[in-house]
Amino acid sequence: MESTRFMDHLQVLLLSFLESGPCITAAMIRQVQERTGGFFDLQPEDLERALQQLEAHGQIAVGFHATTRAGTLQKQYNLTAQGLAQLQTRKPELEHLSCILPFLLR
């Protein structure tokens, strides 16, 4: 898959995940793999690049979440109003992606 197209699809997936609430990086990687049946074998650097682009466009905000392990902090991503508007605009793309993934996974 062309890298720009991959990144576009990944970004709309990430926005859709964040619609249900804040999320940390590891959980997003799991969600992408689960919801795409492993079609997107997401590497942390790909996710980080997609998140940086979404943040640069004001579509997500980054905060920090304290873990229960030794009080360490993890990045937590939240959907912004601008991100929600972008997601609404791209819903047809997301629906199309959801429809074609089962065929790609055969």
UniProtKB/TrEMBL annotation:
Transmembrane segments: none annotated. Residues 14-88 form the Transcription regulator PadR N-terminal domain. InterPro entries: Tscrpt_reg_PadR_N, WH-like_DNA-bd_sf, WH_DNA-bd_sf. It holds the Pfam family PadR. This is Transcription regulator PadR N-terminal domain-containing protein.
